[in-house]
Design a protein that fits this description.
alpha+beta, 30% strand, 8-stranded mixed sheet, 8 strands, Aminopeptidase
């Protein structure tokens, strides 16, 4: 999926395995993109490990997988779904929750907003038109994106890893 020079490339189980095993060149070859030379952070490794387990345990997660955010053939971040419709912080059976993260050296240029828009476009092509995002109340850059996209706060939750999060929804 492409929007201008930015594109989303689905992360396959084989590519995720290579990334987790410290083989970024192999993962890049499998995906047809260039991955960063620096190793994944502990948080990225934890996230990718969770998504890989989900994809292995439930084939629906293969369709609703994480994606590399790619600019000019190089991965600059990740964006993806928390799972298929219904797997979301709002417990809305018709909605998908997604998230995004851009590597620090590429932040502040609108890439996260564009990646979110691409995910929403992909979701609509699959017939799903309701969305959920969650964010720490003090993550101002993410909150700015959420507001820009028109999401409305519908609740709060305690996340095991991130603590208090505000939950936002966008419906047609």
């Amino acid at each position: 999926m492409t929007k201008g020079p930015l594109e989303l490339v689905p992360l396959t189980p084989a590519a995720i395995e290579a990334m987790l095993d410290g083989r970024p060149e192999e993962a890049g070859r499998l995906l047809g993109i260039e991955l960063p030379e620096e190793p994944a952070s502990d948080g990225e490794r934890s996230f990718l490990g969770l998504r890989l387990r989900q994809m292995r345990e439930d084939e629906r997660f293969l369709t609703w997988c994480p994606h590399a955010v790619v600019l000019d053939g190089r991965m600059i971040g990740q964006a993806g779904f928390h799972g298929p419709p219904g797997v979301n912080a709002a417990e809305n059976p018709r909605a998908v929750e997604f998230g995004y993260g851009i590597f620090p050296q590429h932040r502040g240029r609108g890439y996260a907003t564009r990646a979110a828009m691409l995910l929403m476009e992909l979701t609509r092509e699959r017939g799903v038109h309701e969305f959920v995002l969650s964010s720490s109340p003090d993550n101002e850059p993410s909150l700015a994106i959420i507001r820009k996209l028109g999401f409305v706060k519908t609740g709060e939750r305690m996340d095991d890893e991130d603590g208090l999060e505000h939950v936002f929804e966008l419906r047609p």
